[in-house]
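Why does residue order matter? Because the sequence determines the fold. Keep that principle in mind as you read this record.
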Amino acid sequence: MRLRLFTLLSIIVIVPAGFGAKFYRGPAAHWVNDSFAGTFYCIFWCLVCLFLMPRWNPRWIAVGVLVATCILEFSQISRAPILELIRSNFIGRTIIGSTFDWFDFPYYFLGSAVGWLWTARLKTRGSAPNAAATPADRRDT
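Structure:
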């Protein structure tokens, strides 16, 4: 229960940060909006996965988010009608993106790494000690 609460609070913190990066209008705005914001995107999805599946290993959550995000980035090359329909509104563009850019990948790696560290920290701080946990469960957090 504590883990989910702390994870939800983390999501409440990361969402405004991510949208702030997406709508930032200062120096280097293009870079912050289009590339660096991907860092927050990956952190967000790591937190959502932990919230929905608190028993999952943070390392594998981060790897899954990284792989999914990279697949989504490559899907931006496609102009399939269904993808264009999804991209036709703000939420769709925010979730699946609209333009492919090789320079987004480092920020996906960074965001997944931070997401891994963040979720691992939440698991160690937010979970009450569990006598029933296996040694592998304790080691993997």
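The chain has seven helices and no strands.
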